[in-house]
Amino acid sequence: MVFNVRDSFLSIKTEFPREVREIEHVWIPMSDGTRLAVSEREILREESRTRKIEHDIIEKVWTLDDFSDEGARRLLKNGIEYGIVNRNIYTITEGDPMSAKVHCEWTLNVGRGEWQTRLESVSTMTANKSHFLISNELTAFEDENKVFIKN
């Protein structure tokens, strides 16, 4: 992949040799010179992603619905489970830049065995001529019990 901006360019290698792609243990170098191995994981839920564009030709509204289930994993070393699901919806009306809006819903799960936690975040951003307007609600759960909420 090459990006060319006037007389400068950036070249990014997008393919790696077969032996690098198939390596079983990946090491992360730390600032003190030690190396950490990436933990082996069990896949609990596969990733999935959809992106849908909708155009309401009567109302002249464009919508991009971007859904991502980043899957769920269990670290074999300690049994920690984690997963993320998010949906980001962008809308705008033709000829009306102030109608632009993004609505985001994210869910993060972390737990081990019987102990399970979940964070849910719902955010909306709009704008007027002078300000960005942002709202957010964060809700935390332990098991299915709501233990924290912040607007």
How would you characterize this protein structure?
The protein is an all-beta fold. It has one domain. Helix content is 3%, strand content 68%. It has 1 helix and 12 strands. It has one helix at 18-21; strands at 2-5, 8-11, 27-29, 35-37, 41-45, 48-56, 61-75, 81-93, 96-112, 115-127, 132-142, 145-150. The strands form 3 sheets. Strands 5, 6, 7, 8, 9, 10, 11 and 12 form an 8-stranded antiparallel sheet that branches. A two-stranded antiparallel ribbon has the order 1-2. The chain is elongated and about 55 Å long. The model is unreliable at 1-5 and 18-23 (pLDDT under 50).
Can you give me a brief rundown of this structure?
The protein is mostly beta strands and 151 residues long. It has one helix and twelve strands, in the order ββαββββββββββ. The chain has one domain.
Mean pLDDT: 86
Portion of residues in beta strands equals over 45%
Summing up helix and strand content along with how strands pair, one would put the structural category as mainly beta
Q: What profile does the largest beta sheet have?
A: 8 strands, antiparallel
| Number of structurally distinct domains | 1
- Can you write the helix and strand succession as a string? EEHEEEEEEEEEE
Number of strands: 12
Helicity range: under 10%
Measured distance between first and last alpha carbons: 43 Å
| Rg, Cα atoms, Å | 21 Å
Give the CA-based shape: elongated
- Poorly predicted parts: 1-5, 18-23
Number of helices: 1
